[in-house]
Amino acid sequence: MMSIAYSYSYGQSETLTYKDYMKNVKENNIEYVIKKYDVNIAEANLQASKVFPDPELSFSYSNNQDKTMNMGQSYEGGLEYTLELGGKRKARIGVSQSETELTKILLEDYFRNLRADATLSYLNALKQKEFYNFSRLYQQKMIMLAYSDSIRYGLGIITKVDAIQSNFEANKTLNDIIQSEYEFKNSLTNLLLFQGNKQFTEIDSISGKLIFIKKEFNLTNIINIALNNRTDLKAILQSKDLSEKNLKLIKANRFIDLGINLNLSHNTVVKNELAPAPAFSSITAGIAIPIKFSNFNKGEIISAKYAIKQSEASYEGIEIQIRNEVVQAYNYYTSTCNQVEQYNKTLLIDADTILKSKTYSYQRGETTLLEVLNAQKTYNEIYQNYYESLFNCLSSLVELERSCGIWDIEL
Question: How many angstroms separate the CA atoms of 236 and 106, rounded?
Answer without folding.
Answer: 10
